[in-house]
Design brief:
2 domains; 14 strands; five-stranded antiparallel β-sheet; alpha+beta; Gyrase A, domain 2
């Protein structure tokens, strides 16, 4: 049975006896992504010993916790965790009317992308569907500063918000059996990057030579929730030299 507690712009749902989901609104609502990541950063800073892992996503944060390590409380274990998180959210302005500001990070992460037709099987089709030239599609796609909404689908796969509305397109009706690693695609109102060669149904308009996930590094994922990303168009020659 799912237990749900709701208050103002935050609600909690129990996910079994060792995890809970915090909802801060619909991902399409203005300011929700900032609220998610301000809360995540606050939780990381506090680093209570009873929290084992955090998983930010679209308007939500899932917390995996150890109920045994929770501090003494008058309420039950789940209720105690929710009350503590809500108090932290209030103290950090997560529930304020104004959109909270994310802590200043390093400048946006620049990712080189080659939009050559040999690496972009859907680019011409995308241009035709949105009634723009290929050059215009490339310019619009690379002129935006994106925000990482979440990492998912595959390790290191970033869901990037900020796509120009003119490029919004549904995913392919029939997914490909294999999409090349580094492929940059459009799916709905987002853009994303395939870190590995996997099946996929996004419209592929380019490819990056950058490795997005490496188990030998710490952290293994190049990108994380809340990061800003910009794409830098590169030539096929530069792409070949990079790899």
């Amino acid at each position: 049975m799912q237990v749900r507690l709701k208050s103002q712009a935050i609600s909690f749902s129990a996910l079994g006896d060792s995890a809970l989901e915090i909802s801060l609104g619909d991902a399409s609502e203005a300011g929700v992504i900032e609220r998610v990541h301000v809360l995540v950063e606050a939780l990381k800073k506090e680093n209570p010993r009873w929290i084992n892992a955090l998983l930010p996503a679209y308007g939500t944060v899932v917390i995996f916790y150890d109920a045994i390590k929770l501090p003494p409380s008058l309420g039950g274990e789940y209720e105690a965790a929710c009350a503590w998180i809500k108090a932290l959210a209030v103290s950090q302005g997560v529930l304020a009317r104004r959109t909270p500001k994310l802590a200043n990070k390093a400048k946006p992460i620049e990712i080189p992308v080659c939009y050559d037709s040999s690496l972009a099987p859907d680019l011409e089709l995308v241009a035709a569907k949105v009634k723009l030239s290929v050059e215009a599609v490339i310019k619009l796609h690379s002129a935006v500063t994106y925000r990482v909404h979440a990492i998912g689908f595959a390790p290191g796969f970033p869901y990037l918000a900020g796509l120009n509305p003119k490029l919004k397109l549904p995913r392919l009706k029939t997914p490909r059996e294999k999409v090349a690693a580094g492929s940059v695609g459009i799916g709905g109102d987002q853009t994303g990057i395939y870190p590995f060669a996997t099946p996929g149904g996004w419209n592929i308009i380019g490819q990056t030579p950058v490795k997005l996930f490496d188990v030998k590094k710490e952290p293994p994922s190049l990108l994380s929730g809340g990061d800003e990303v910009i794409f830098k168009p590169i030539t096929k020659e530069a792409f070949s030299q990079w790899i």
